[in-house]
Amino acid sequence: DGGITQSPKYLFRKEGQNVTLSCEQNLNHDAMYWYRQDPGQGLRLIYYSQIVNDFQKGDIAEGYSVSREKKESFPLTVTSAQKNPTAFYLCASSIADGYEQYFGPGTRLTVT
Amino acid sequence: AQSVTQLDSQVPVFEEAPVELRCNYSSSVSVYLFWYVQYPNQGLQLLLKYLSGSTLVKGINGFEAEFNKSQTSFHLRKPSVHISDTAEYFCAVSDQTGANNLFFGTGTRLTVIP
């Protein structure tokens, strides 16, 4: 089955540690995205990538980094510089600009 | 830039009653419009989309939405809700100029009461 996988489902880290969230898709989509979701808020865009080896900052990129070495993969690193990293992180992909995005199941990150 | 307003943060409704979830958008260019549903601790699933053509769009699970350009609205409706419709619903907009970002509303929590 085609789709987007995110791992792990739940992730716990100590403050001051970097952590990398995985996102893989087998939909052959060119564009991939990372969002952050907090209670009572919509989705906020962290980074997006339209093609391999290229990515752009979204609205809340500070404290995060990404890479896009393969079309299928778009990992997100939450660095120690992110002031409030505890959140639900969602990865998405789309076939082209402006079209609907398909979402993974999400990773809930808790930093203590 | 685009923006989306979902006027109701929470909507309680009795089972088998009709429901309307409101969405208004702001944009200086033509847009694509989407409704997504999110069940607890899961990702978002596309309910329906408006790209062009008929302004009445039918989606999955018996939902439909109507695009109203003059009122810049895209309200979601269902004539009879089920317990299983309890979830968070998000309206989203993107422009037609080639920019790839979706702008999301803050969501509406639909709770169906038995």
Q: Name the poorly predicted regions of chain B.
A: none
Strand content of chain B: over 45%
Q: Order of helices and strands of chain A, N to C?
A: EEEEEEEEEEE
Helix content of chain A: under 10%
- Based on CA atoms alone, the radius of gyration of chain B comes out at 14 Å
| Average of per-residue pLDDT values of chain B | 92
Q: Could you report the average pLDDT of chain A, rounded to the nearest whole number?
A: 92
Tell how many strands the DSSP assignment of chain A holds. 11
Q: What is the number of E strands of chain B?
A: 12
The Cα radius of gyration of chain A reads 13 Å
Q: Give the SSE order of chain B as H and E letters.
A: EEEEEEEEEEEE
Number of continuous helical runs of chain B:
0
Structure in words:
The complex is a heterodimer of chains A (112) and B (114). In chain A, strand 5 (43-51) and strand 6 form a beta hairpin. The mean pLDDT of chain A is 92. With 112 residues, chain A is mainly β. Chain A is globular. Chain A starts with a strand and ends with a strand. In chain A, the strands form two sheets. In chain A, strands 2, 4, 5, 6, 9, 10 and 11 form a seven-stranded mixed sheet that branches. Chain A has strands at 4-7, 10-13, 19-25, 31-37, 43-51, 54-57, 64-66, 76-78, 87-94, 102-103, 107-111. With 114 residues, chain B is mainly β. Chain B contains no helices and twelve strands. In chain B, the strands form three sheets. In chain B, strands 2, 5, 6, 10, 11 and 12 form a six-stranded mixed sheet that branches. A four-stranded antiparallel sheet of chain B has the order 3-9-8-7, with no helix packed on it. In chain B, strands 1-4 form a two-stranded antiparallel ribbon. Helices cover 0% and strands 53% of the residues of chain B. The radius of gyration of chain B is 14 Å and the shape is globular. In chain B, strand 10 (87-95) and strand 11 (103-104) form a beta hairpin.
